[in-house]
């Protein structure tokens, strides 16, 4: 048996395969079902058991040696084979397609940049909230319709745990924690119990702003919003403030920007009015300041809030809100170069 082992080893060591085919032949000749090594293992079964220990060891060593050498030859042949092939290095690389930012992220980042320039910092808070931060601290009366199950997603009732319906809740948190003056913008996801359509969704994004200091006036609010409108929609953009109502601001207003598409003349996008509604705003109601422990005799503030989807729709001329949530790559790919 010893002799057979060394014979096989010698035969194997004299080989010098040049190709994958040669190597496969060798593998079959030695390790295949009828290969030399396999046959020796067969023979091994019938030798007297006193000898098994000695020969078993030799046989196993031979098998591993052959296996390792075959592996080594294999890697050698593979690495050589590429250097022998005629490669055209001028060929164009297989195109790798990169992803792109979601339009909502693009607009959100742009808004953050605009307000950052005016000294606003980003403030974030939880999506799951309590009644205090979403409604009570913002002067919502007990019977306000927003507190209804039809408008708000409640997780539990009494104590009320709910999904925030606006990021004004984060403004409350900033008043709770931060020293005055406060100058924050609060971007984030909000939830409302609404039927999904081209113009409404039960999930969307907002960015809300809050500025509280001594002597903050409506003129400061107006100038801040005019600056934002010009930065976002172009320097020739005009703004218009219409009286409105929010429980947490007094006076309250809604802001329109002049329609960029028709230059204010009237078209289908602005529904022939020349104006597009973009946000809600107002002077923080003194009640809200007091509810949040701020002396309304010393301090005043303004707040505003807008839907990011709405701004993105105006900016990119997207007609259906649902597109933002379906994540169809044919839609998303269009934002590659923005
Ligand atoms: N929170 C209001 C909304 O969700 C927007 C708003 C914010 C209005 C601040 C006025 C002031 O519609």
Whole-number count of domains: 2
Given as residue ranges, the uncertain stretches (5+ residues, pLDDT < 50) are: none
Order of helical and strand elements? HHHHHEEHEEHEEHEEEHEHHH
Q: Strand percentage, roughly? A: 15-25%
Specify the CATH class of the largest domain: Alpha Beta
Broad structural category: alpha+beta
The mean pLDDT is: 91
Tell me the overall shape. Answer: elongated
Subcellular location: Cytoplasm
Protein name: Phenylalanine--tRNA ligase alpha subunit
Keywords: Aminoacyl-tRNA synthetase, ATP-binding, Cytoplasm, Ligase, Magnesium, Metal-binding, Nucleotide-binding, Protein biosynthesis
GO cellular component, one term: cytoplasm
What does this protein look like?
- One of its GO terms (molecular function) is magnesium ion binding.
- It is found in: Cytoplasm.
- Mg(2+) binds at residue 250.
- Keywords: Aminoacyl-tRNA synthetase, ATP-binding, Cytoplasm, Ligase, Magnesium, Metal-binding, Nucleotide-binding, Protein biosynthesis.
- The chain contains 12 helices and 10 strands.
- The protein has helices spanning 2-13, 20-31, 36-44, 49-84, 103-117, 131-134, 168-177, 218-233, 286-291, 308-316, 323-326, 329-332, and strands at residues 121-122, 128-130, 154-156, 161-163, 182-191, 203-213, 239-246, 249-258, 275-284, 300-307.
- The chain is elongated.
- Residues 166, 168, 208, 246, 249, 280-282, 303-305 line the site of phenylalanine (PHE).
């Amino acid at each position: 048996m010893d002799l057979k082992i060394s014979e096989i080893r010698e035969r194997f060591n004299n080989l010098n395969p040049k190709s994958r085919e040669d190597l496969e032949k060798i593998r079959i000749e030695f390790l295949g079902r009828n290969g030399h090594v396999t046959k020796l293992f067969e023979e091994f079964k019938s030798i007297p058991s006193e000898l098994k220990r000695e020969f078993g060891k030799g046989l196993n060593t031979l098998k591993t040696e052959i296996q390792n050498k075959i592996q080594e030859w294999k890697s050698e042949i593979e690495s050589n084979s590429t250097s022998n092939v005629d490669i055209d290095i001028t060929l164009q690389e297989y195109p790798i397609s990169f992803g792109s930012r979601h339009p909502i992220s693009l607009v959100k980042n742009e808004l953050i940049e605009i307000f950052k320039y005016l000294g606003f910092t980003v403030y974030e808070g939880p999506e799951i909230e309590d009644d205090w931060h979403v409604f009570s601290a913002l002067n919502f009366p007990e019977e306000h319709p927003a507190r209804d199950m039809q408008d708000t997603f409640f997780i539990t009732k009494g104590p009320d745990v709910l999904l925030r319906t606006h990021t004004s809740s984060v403004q409350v948190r900033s008043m709770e924690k931060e020293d005055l003056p406060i100058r924050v913008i609060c971007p984030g996801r909000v939830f409302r119990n609404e039927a999904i359509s081209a113009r409404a969704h039960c999930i969307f994004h907002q960015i809300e702003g809050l500025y509280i200091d001594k002597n903050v006036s409506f003129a400061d609010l107006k100038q801040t919003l005019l600056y934002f409108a010009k930065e976002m929609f172009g320097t020739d953009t005009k703004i218009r403030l219409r009286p409105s109502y929010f429980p947490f601001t007094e006076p309250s207003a809604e802001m329109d920007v002049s329609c960029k598409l028709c230059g204010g003349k009237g078209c289908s996008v602005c529904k022939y009015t020349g104006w597009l509604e973009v946000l809600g705003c107002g002077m923080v109601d003194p009640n809200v300041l007091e509810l949040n422990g701020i002396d309304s005799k010393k301090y005043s503030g303004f707040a505003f809030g807008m839907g990011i989807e709405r701004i993105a729709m105006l900016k990119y001329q997207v007609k259906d809100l649902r597109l933002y949530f379906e994540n169809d790559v044919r839609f998303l790919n269009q934002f590659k170069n923005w």
